[in-house]
Amino acid sequence: PSGGGKSTLASLVPRFWDVDEGSVLVGGVDVRCIPVEELMGAVSFVFQDDRLFKRSLADNVRAGRPDASDAEVLAALHAAQCDDIIAKFPDGVNTVVGKAGVYLSGGERQRIALARAILKGAPIVVLDEATAFADPENEALIQAALATLCEDKTVLMIAHRLSTIQDADMILVFGDGKIIERGNHDELLKQNGVYAFMWKEYQTQ
């Protein structure tokens, strides 16, 4: 449920906050012992309300890896299903976000943010409600982009929409700031607890 602690937990990995008790480990190492620059380089984030800079589309993507070539930026945009966004503006990838006449929907902004994360290529990806503001058409494109972004990565995916996480290796169910259930989809259904109830509700919507 909203307010259960999902985003807070994910924010402990990049040390937006630190734990008061226990520890958060990446590769068996406490994140507090990893140099900040190294930790930041190892994690990509896509938030539900990702903001874009008032720069060109290409510059927004290149923020993921400043030394990337133009060809690499274009490849990331293509992998993030952004070809239609680029095609609709006369200046293409050089279109400045926020300029008069330049409008991007929430789902389009998400795809640009995904292109940035794809270009960065970090081994850990944190997705916080990445499809929250997308209409059905954009959601299908975002899901296709996520398949590219998440390939061979460790992914922390925060979601309310259960279909998004159905195939995850491990699902954690939160309640009042605590993990109250864990397992894969089939295991959680057998537990016949909170997740199973939520899944039944989801199926009848």
Indicate the topology.
Layout: H1 6-11, E1 25-26, E2 29-30, H2 36-42, E3 43-46, H3 57-62, H4 70-79, H5 83-87, H6 106-120, E4 124-128, H7 136-149, E5 154-158, H8 162-165, E6 171-175, E7 178-183, H9 185-191, H10 194-203
Helix pairs in contact: 4-6, 6-7, 9-10
Summary tags:
alpha/beta, 205 residues, single chain, 10 helices, two-stranded antiparallel sheet
Detailed description of the structure:
The mean pLDDT is 90. This protein has helices spanning 6-11, 36-42, 57-62, 70-79, 83-87, 106-120, 136-149, 162-165, 185-191, 194-203, and strands spanning 25-26, 29-30, 43-46, 124-128, 154-158, 171-175, 178-183. Helix content is 41%, strand content 14%. The strands form 3 sheets. Strands 3-4-5 form a 3-stranded parallel sheet. The chain has a two-stranded antiparallel ribbon with strand order 1-2. The protein has 10 helices and 7 strands. The longest helix is centred in the middle third of the chain and has 15 residues, at 106-120. The protein is globular. By secondary structure, the chain is an alpha/beta fold. Strand 1 and strand 2 (29-30) form a beta hairpin.
Number of strands: 7
Helix content: 40-55%
Question: Main beta sheet: strand number and arrangement?
Answer: 3 strands, parallel
The rounded Rg comes to 18 Å
Strand order in the sheet with the most strands: 3-4-5
Beta-strand content estimate: 5-15%
The oligomeric state of the chains shown is single chain
How many separate helices? 10
Termini, distance in Å?
17 Å
Low-pLDDT residue intervals, each spanning 5 or more residues: none
Helical/strand content category: alpha/beta
H/E element sequence: HEEHEHHHHEHEHEEHH
